[in-house]
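Recall the central idea of this unit: under ordinary conditions, the amino acid sequence of a chain determines the structure it adopts. In this exercise we apply that idea directly, starting from the sequence alone.
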Amino acid sequence: MRNLIQLFRDTIVAEFARLRLGLFSIAASLILLAVAGGICLIGSAFLLYGVFDSLSRLMPTWMAGGLIALGVTVIAMLLAYWGRQRLVVRSLSPPLADATSTPAAEQMRKVAESGINAGELLKRSGLRPGDLAIAAFIAGLVMSRSTRERNKAQKN
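Accordingly, the structure predicted from this sequence is:
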């Protein structure tokens, strides 16, 4: 029992250290991205001012400002359109002609019904969702650690 508790503690400490390292890496990346975005914003402001100054020598200043505003608006709309297109969820498989009569659809329906029945059974049993989540977390840790140990023992 002590070995299991020590194994659990070692696993928690190792995973916590790995998580902390990952979070630090992500935070550093986000800071660099924010600084790069600020520099690009300042640079684009100077670029737009240069274009405005050049255009104001050729046409009235109100027209030069309007032309630049129109150009920036068109670019922003194109970027928004492309960003929206990238977020569209695409199906990886072609749609089935008649999905209600396939054996896979019937199997999925049975799985969904058994999941609903299991949920109702758990609700009647009085178990809290937090208890189930903790039990699933511990079971996942034990399974991943036991798999690693088994693989390590097989290599030796």
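Residues 25-87 form one domain.
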